[in-house]
Amino acid sequence: MIPPATLPGTAEDGRGFSAFPVPLTLAALAGLALGVVGYAFHYAKGSSYLGNDPATCANCHVMAGHYAGWQAAPHHRVATCNDCHTPAGFFSKYLVKAENGYHHSMAFTLGNYPDVIRARPESSAVVEANCRRCHADLVEGIAHGGDVSCIRCHASVGHLR
């Protein structure tokens, strides 16, 4: 007797279930992940971080003091947050924004940020480079050397303390 015809990949052929649900499941999981990321981006006002408005930095309540300090400081008339805290180049600017956004979102989502926020060494290096770039004509003749940070003596220029 000839066995009845079975479709490959069905339970009847003895090899388990069809592989068809695997791509469908992966697509559903990818769609779910994309939906969660999209909702989080919208909820956190993510698109506002693509611009240059300093008020965006105060979206998080822990940054309100830094924003107020910037408004009271001398640089608020000539520099925005991005002028000091992101590199000048287009791609490097958005790379740093993405990296900082990742770190900020993880810290605020998980609640593991300190009461007194401090810049990471990478962020401090960007600020230092921007000080030296914007004020190149001034610092060129100063004999401080490369190891002295502008912020060491001029900490209140960007954010009044």
Describe this structure in words.
The protein has 161 residues and is mostly helical. The chain folds into 2 domains: 1-43; 51-153, Orthogonal Bundle (Multiheme cytochrome fold). Helices cover 50% and strands 0% of the residues. It has 7 helices and no strands. The protein is elongated and about 75 Å long. The protein starts with 20 loop residues before the first helix and ends in an 8-residue tail after the last helix.
Which features characterize this protein?
161 residues; mainly alpha; Multiheme cytochrome fold
Low-confidence runs of at least 5 consecutive residues: none
Q: What is the N-to-C succession of helices and strands?
A: HHHHHHH
Give the helix tally: 7
Distance between the terminal alpha carbons, to the nearest Å?
91 Å
The mean pLDDT is 83
Give a quick account of the main beta sheet: strands, pairing sense, barrel closure.
none
- Fraction of residues in helices? 40-55%
**Radius of gyration, taken over Cα atoms and rounded to an integer in Å:** 26 Å
Beta-sheet strand percentage?
Answer: under 5%
- In the CATH hierarchy, what is the class of the largest domain? Mainly Alpha
Indicate the CATH architecture of the largest domain: Orthogonal Bundle
CATH third-tier fold name of the largest domain: Multiheme cytochrome fold
| Number of separate strands | 0
The outline comes out as elongated
| Content-based structural category | mainly alpha
Query: What's the CATH H-level homologous superfamily of the largest domain?
Result: Di-heme elbow motif domain
Q: Provide the number of structural domains.
A: 2
